[in-house]
């Protein structure tokens, strides 16, 4: 057997055995042993709680960052979906939205395509998506 | 069929709440376990515990509903530390055919990155030797270290040094204390 692999197995067995010991100790015995290694038990507990809180904070921030990245990617993909719709479908979507939202004057004008370029209409649809007024396929919510 | 499927794993918030609710004794169990689990991994105990918690909150590891937080984190630390040792095992060059041990700890590209520096610290053979040296004047404790490393039965270890149960338990305590206190870098 590879010497290093053999050493790893020996260390694994030793550590598993030591860790199992800790499971079998009473609460009182654990606190006594911990104080022998880490010092005053109230301070040792406080230090460990601080380590835990910091790890929860860092993990939570990282999780939030990942969620933001996912959301940003979803928004980009959704905006692309809306841009790929034919112009007539985009205008129909705005007309339907204008009707369902009480004939908002700005949207009605945009729907009539009287003043806007297709880029303006894409921007308007993107705003409506961000507001949650339409979904990423252009359905009015 | 109606109703929802039973949950199999804790969510991040539930995990955090359950962790914060642990008793002082369980916090010390985690800290002691982390100290042992970190041996030869390149991590300090607190950093290993922190890493296990961080990965769980990020969703990279999932805590089963039916497993205690202490057991789950112990297993997570075991897995993370083992991964670090495996990385070392893959990256460490083998000694040459003449058994030139000077090669141990050297790298083909002579890289000196922080990661390589951490890996270079993890020489498991030296670590095992160092642990045994701690008990060079305590035959009962040494028998326990060697017996645990080799997977001997409790009876065999006790018989080796003719230990009573009380002597065996006291020697195990000495082993735990000394290994938890040792510094390895």
Q: What does the model show?
A:
- The complex is a heterodimer of chains A (about 140) and B (about 180).
- Chain A is built from 6 helices and no strands.
- Chain A has helices spanning about 5-25, 25-40, 40-85, 85-100, 105-110, 120-130.
- In chain A, α3 (about 40-85) runs antiparallel to α6 (about 120-130), α4 runs antiparallel to α5 and α4 (about 85-100) packs across α6 (about 120-130).
- The longest helix of chain A is centred in the middle third of the chain and has 43 residues, at about 40-85.
- The model of chain A has no long low-confidence stretch (mean pLDDT about 85).
- Chain B has about 180 residues and is an all-alpha fold.
- Chain B contains 9 helices and no strands.
- Chain B has helices at about 10-20, 25-35, 45-55, 70-90, 115-120, 125-135, 140-150, 155-160, 165-180.
- The longest helix of chain B has 23 residues, at about 70-90.
- The radius of gyration of chain B is 20 Å and the shape is globular.
- The interface between A and B is large, with 46 and 57 residues.
Class per helix and strand makeup of chain A: mainly alpha
Query: Biggest sheet of chain A, in brief?
Result: none
**Gyration radius of chain B, in Å:** 20 Å
What is the mean predicted local confidence, pLDDT of chain B?
84
Low-confidence parts of chain A: none
Strand content of chain B: under 5%
Please name the two chains that share the biggest interface, counting residues whose Cβ lies under 8 Å from a Cβ on the partner chain.
A-B, 46 and 57 residues
SS summary, helix count of chain B: 9
Distance between the termini of chain B: 58 Å
Mean pLDDT of chain A: 84
As residue ranges, the low-confidence spans of chain B are 95-112
Name the beta content range of chain A.
Answer: under 5%
Descriptive terms for the model:
heterodimer, A: 141 residues, mainly alpha, 6 helices, 79% helix, 0% strand, B: 185 residues, globular
């Amino acid at each position: 057997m590879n010497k290093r692999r053999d050493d790893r197995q020996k260390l694994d067995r030793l550590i598993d055995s030591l860790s199992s010991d800790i499971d079998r100790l009473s609460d009182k015995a654990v606190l006594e042993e911990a104080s022998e290694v880490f010092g005053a038990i109230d301070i040792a507990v406080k230090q460990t709680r601080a380590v835990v809180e910091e790890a929860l904070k860092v993990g939570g921030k990282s999780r939030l960052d990942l969620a933001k990245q996912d959301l940003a990617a979803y928004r980009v993909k959704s905006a692309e979906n809306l841009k790929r719709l034919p112009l007539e479908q985009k205008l129909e979507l705005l007309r339907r939205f204008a009707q369902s939202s009480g004939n908002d004057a700005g949207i009605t004008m945009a729907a009539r395509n009287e003043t806007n370029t297709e880029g303006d209409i894409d921007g308007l649809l993107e705003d409506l998506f961000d507001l949650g007024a339409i979904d990423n396929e252009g359905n009015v919510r | 069929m109606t109703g929802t499927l039973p949950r199999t794993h804790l969510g991040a918030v539930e995990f955090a709440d359950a962790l914060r609710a642990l008793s002082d004794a369980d916090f010390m169990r985690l800290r002691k376990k982390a100290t042992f689990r970190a041996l030869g991994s390149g991590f300090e105990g607190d950093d290993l515990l922190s890493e296990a918690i961080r990965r769980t909150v990020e969703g990279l590891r999932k805590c089963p509903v039916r497993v205690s937080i202490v057991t789950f984190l112990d297993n997570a630390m075991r897995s993370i530390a083992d991964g670090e040792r495996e990385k070392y095992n893959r990256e460490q060059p083998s000694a040459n055919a003449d058994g030139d041990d000077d090669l141990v700890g050297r790298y083909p590209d002579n890289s000196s990155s922080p990661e390589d520096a951490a890996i270079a610290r993890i020489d498991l053979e030296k670590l095992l030797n160092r642990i045994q040296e701690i008990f060079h004047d305590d035959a009962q404790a040494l028998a326990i270290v060697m017996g645990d490393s080799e997977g001997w039965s409790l009876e065999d270890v006790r018989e080796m040094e003719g230990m009573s149960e009380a002597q065996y338990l006291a020697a195990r305590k000495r082993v735990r204390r000394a290994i938890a206190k040792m510094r390895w870098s």
